[in-house]
Amino acid sequence: MKLIRPLFVATHLWFALIAFVLLFVAAYAFPILFPLIQIAFVIFLVLIGLDYWLLFRRKNRTNGSAFFARREIPDRLSNGDENPLTIYLENQYSFQVDVEIIDEIPYQFQRRDVLFKARLNPRETQAIRYELRPTRRGEYSFGSVNVFVLTPLGLLKRRYQFGQGKMVAVYPSFLQMRQYELLAATNRLNEVGIKRIRRIGHSMEFEQVRPYSTGDDVRTVNWKATARRTDSQGASLMINAYQDERSQPVYCLIDKGRVMQSPFDGLTLLDYAINASLVLSNIALLKQDRAGILTFSDHVGQLLPADRRTGHMLKILELLYRQKTRFLETDYESLYTSVRSHIRQRSLLLLFTNFETVSAMHRQLPYLRRLAKDHLLLIIFFENTELRSLLDQPATDTEQIYLKTIGEKFAYEKNQIVKELTQYGIQTILTAPQNLTANTVNKYLELKARGMI
Asked: What range(s) does the DUF58 domain occupy (predicted)?
């Protein structure tokens, strides 16, 4: 059975059998062809036996196999990103082989087209690279790598199976986080839509008193220190030196209620918010601020206090990875109570949620105003991109005019929400899901440059 189970019939063999059936049928009309067809069929059976012998005769001394394959996969995958995978092939036969590779990827991808073909010379190695884009966090189970080997005769296939399965966790978009971190280190954040923010004035976190240098702001002259130095060491202006304000608490408040379950490009709004929170937390830590996370829905979920000690980014990543969807109505009263109890210092609160109508925002407005009274509140909600594409298309009949009218009403309400929140001193971002991360980081850098945090 060990020599039969891995054996499969190639397409060429089926075509040859069909051809022989037709030839034998034709031999009834032309009996003179029958002996020739019989000889050809015997030769055909010999070729099948030879093909079988070539496939199964040789075994490698190291692993007992004449062919070797290995899948190389990261220890964890990045949600919403294209993750690279590599399959390494090694032909240990003494002749050229054609191979078909079927990789058993997790069912979450819902793909049935992961089939690759290659041709390897004797003792040759090849690498096949492809990408997978997961759209859900959690554990993904990879199966075996199935390799079907054909000899130059191409009549039979021998199946090899490598790697009996591997469990891989899909985390929030750490690839996007690394991209922003690298661009920030090389001062190239503008490549991903991050604007250069002009710093308005200077921060008021005192660093030291030092001698005046050309180009220093004369408004920072410390006249008392100048007078003391003039008396003791001669005339010399002294100024107050300031540094960027650091260790400001920055919290990402992530709504896990039903309003965040709308899909866009395979990901839910919740996953977009989680990916943006991971990037923003990393940027905040690079800016020497403290980053924290709070999740909520019908009740408050997990709270990670703002911190910037070594290993804090890993805690944020693990917390965001474990978040699960809840399809219940969001309770903002519980959110306000939890923030008031656990976040005592004035902080920047980035609230990721979604409001579709003005009335929905009005129901939560009292709690939002209370949050904005004690903290700097930034509400981030989403533009309906499908609705926007509908509005951009010209109407050609009565039905489309009706649909565009309804769409204009919803789009107007989104803009009305922004205006009403701004009237109460609440910062807002209305963004398309694909622009969420860049717009959020831009707003954070703007608020920091304006000295509001």
From this structure: 208-378
